[in-house]
Request: fold
Amino acid sequence: MLKALREHWVEYLIEAWGLGTLMVMAGLFATLIHSPVSLVPQWLPNSFLRGALMGVLMGLTAIALIYSPWGKRSGAHLNPGVTLTFFRLKKLAPWDVAFYILAQFVGGTLGVALVAFILREAFTNPPINYLATVPGQWGWWAALVAEFLMAFGLMMTVLVTANHKRLAAFTGIFAGLLVATYITLAAPISGMSINPARTFASALPSKIWTAFWIYYFAPPLAMLTAAEVYRRVSGLKTRSICCKLCPNGETDCISIDCCDACDDFVRPWR
Reply:
């Protein structure tokens, strides 16, 4: 444990910063776009268009975090499901997984707390409610299906693109586009989480734990399923798989065996 902390504490802090920043931006954007104290709902009364605007802004935020210098170093997992999936693929050591996940939960929660401190009732009251993710009008089963399919699709996209020489450099862009699409289409169904740490970060201060089990279990299980499908279909050995959402040869790599792959993917286009 101490060895992992000494060698990779920077990467752990980056994961906390990454999800914390994502939650801060989500809180600011959601309040600006959906809160009754904002003028945007008056200027843009169509709820679908407001959801699409939220999706675009969060997709761009995700892309910016993934391709930031810090995101390139930690791999920009920002999600316990992503980290667990790469552990299953034998890319991460157990202590690194534990500290990554802890950092994601802590960072996300601090991000929500910061927005609540700054915006107060505009963020904590309905319809924002600390960004709590709860099932929509179709109930828990629709939220469960939506969360599973979205998480499966995101992880499969990351694995396919990150391990394709011509697409690897665009992995983060594909991920950001999916985030934008998911928020636009699925927010009314499940709240669009696909991230246990993201849902926990909102549920803890708001005390809204409605169907929390969906958001806690479905996304990681879907991502692990995607990993198993990808391995069997592609035939790619786990040691060849990159565990970053931004494969690059520019930074240190926390992976057990990933840096050579990052170099091979990225350097031909430099």
